[in-house]
Structure formats: C-alpha cells, structure tokens
Amino acid sequence: MDDRLAVDGALPRDTLGMSSDYVAPRTATEDRLAALWGTGLEIAPIGVDDDFFELGGDSLLAAELQLAIDQEFGVEVPAAALFLTPTVAALAVAVEAAARDGDGRGTAEGVDGAARHGA
Q: What are phi and psi of 93, to 5 degrees?
C-alpha cells in the first residue's frame, strides 16, 4: 500500500487498481505536471507512468489541462500530445521541448511528430 496521503480530499491512487506502479516525479516539470493532474483529477499521488485516461481523465478534462499547462509553463502543447502519450513523463518531455525550442511561447510538436504531421 502507498504510504503517501491523499491531499485535500483527493481520492487515494491505490484505490483505483492502476495497471502501473507508482513512480514519483523525478524532475521539476514532472512534479508540476503531476500537481496539475492531481488537482484536475482529484487523485493523489499521481505517478509519472500513470495513464491519464486510466485515472479517469476525459476529453473535457484534457482540454482544461492543456489550458492549465499553457498558463503554468507558458508553452502551448497540442491537444494530441495528451491523447498520444497520456503520462506525466511523456508530457514533461513535450513541455520541456516546447520551452527549449521557443522563446517562452513555443509549441510542443515533438510528441510522436503528431503536431507536425497533422495527426
């Protein structure tokens, strides 16, 4: 059983029967993304390999999360990013690539080339 406590009434992750084991955020970006997911999904803790949709995420929450990422990091991540790679770890890579490639208002196009190829 996970010994971390759920925060602010969030549902404990270990009650969901997740297919992945909990892996804690390893970078500041992963930590910030996990916090955003936890707030939106009302689940804690969020692991970097957890699947957004397995946690109960849906397309409406994905759109809200996309806006929250834009506000939190100052980069635009295409909606396809979360659908193609629905983990904190993969999304962190896209956010970091957008920040690196842009001047503060970049677009994350590195997720499986989806944004570049119109997926």
A: -60, -45
The per-residue pLDDT for range 56-81, each reduced to its tens digit, is 999 999 999 999 999 999 998 887 88
Burial class of 111 by CB neighbour count within 10 A (0 to 12, 13 to 18, 19+):
buried
CA-CA-CA-CA torsion for 114, 112, 74, 58, nearest 10 degrees? 70
Supply the pTM of this predicted model: 0.75
- Both tokens of 101, joined, read 């490639």
The beta strand positions in the chain, using DSSP E, are: 11-12, 43-44
Residues contacting residue 62 through CB under 8 Å, at least 6 positions apart: 52, 79, 82, 83
